[in-house]
Amino acid sequence: MGGPGTPKIVSRVLINRDMKDTIKQTLCGGATKTYPFYEVIVAHELFHCCNVWHHGPSLDQVVYWKSKIVGGKKELLEYDNPADIDAPYRGNRVTIHPGEDDTLIYAPDLALWDKPFPVLMGNSWGPHSGDENCIMRYSNSETRTGSAPNIRYCLVWECQEPVGQGLCTSPTGTGVNEEGRKTGSRYGNCASGQGDCTDHICVNDLYH
Ligand SMILES: [Zn+2]
Ligand SMILES: [Zn+2]
User: Fold this and answer.
1) Radius of gyration, alpha carbons of the chain
2) Distance, CA 45 to ligand 1 centroid (Å)?
3) 118-169, pLDDT tens digit by residue?
4) How far is ligand 2, taken at its centre, from the CA of residue 110, in Å?
């Protein structure tokens, strides 16, 4: 409560008692990896009490995928606002690929899309950006924009985010965020002035 900043502005840190000790993620290629989770969350929150911020401002948002019949044919549409789903002429047409594989496409007539399907979309320079192994990086994105503005990579079941276990020393994207990566950097480098978490640590209230 309060923060991020030096200890004087944080009144308390609350951690959900149901938080899991570990989390299992399915990475690209289908391999699963189990990461420590509870201790990572506690350390992340405590760093918010020591002047460490996120890797970017919060630009992540929940979007909704739903099929709709347009001109007699089923199309997949994406909505930012659930109130728009039943309104005419709203939503953007999207092509959704499983994982980050441009060669496979989810068909718009799958029963999955009959009801609004909510997914958290990570955005460039947001909290998912930067060093993949930093505990201050978010790791819960479920989709991202692919090789064109209307392409979505679905990360719900595969190509899930790795969960950072260290603290970054640079704002440069690594791993899933590395520039020149085969399927493209997911969220890029950290936002300007953010990242390089190690150098932001300050526990002295007199300096801020
Ligand atoms: Zn945080
Ligand atoms: Zn970091």
Assistant:
1) 19
2) 6
3) 999 999 999 999 999 999 999 999 999 998 999 999 999 999 999 999 999 9
4) 39
Note residues around ion ligand 2 (Cβ under 5 angstroms). Answer: 134, 136, 168, 197
Complete DSSP assignment for 25-81 = EE-TTS-EEEEE-HHHHHHHHHHHTTT---SS----EEEEEEEEEETTEEEEEEESS
Q: Residue 153's closest CA among 94, 107, 108?
A: 94
Half-sphere exposure of residue 205: CA atoms within 13 angstroms, side-chain side: 5
**What separation in Å is there between the alpha carbon of 135 and the centre of ligand 2?**
7
Which residues are bridge partners to 152 per DSSP? 96, 145
Structure tokens given for 69: 């019949």
Distance (Å, rounded) from C-alpha 65 to C-alpha 74?
A: 13
Q: Tokens 């001109």, residue?
A: 71
176, 163 Cβ separation under 8 angstroms: no
What's the sign of the alpha-carbon dihedral 95, 98, 103, 106? negative
| Cβ atoms of residues 160 and 186 within 8 Å | no
Q: How far is the CA of 205 from the centre of ligand 1 (A)?
A: 20
pLDDT digits (tens, 9 = 90+) for 124-138: 999 999 999 999 999
Cα 196 to averaged position of ligand 2 atoms, centre (Å): 5
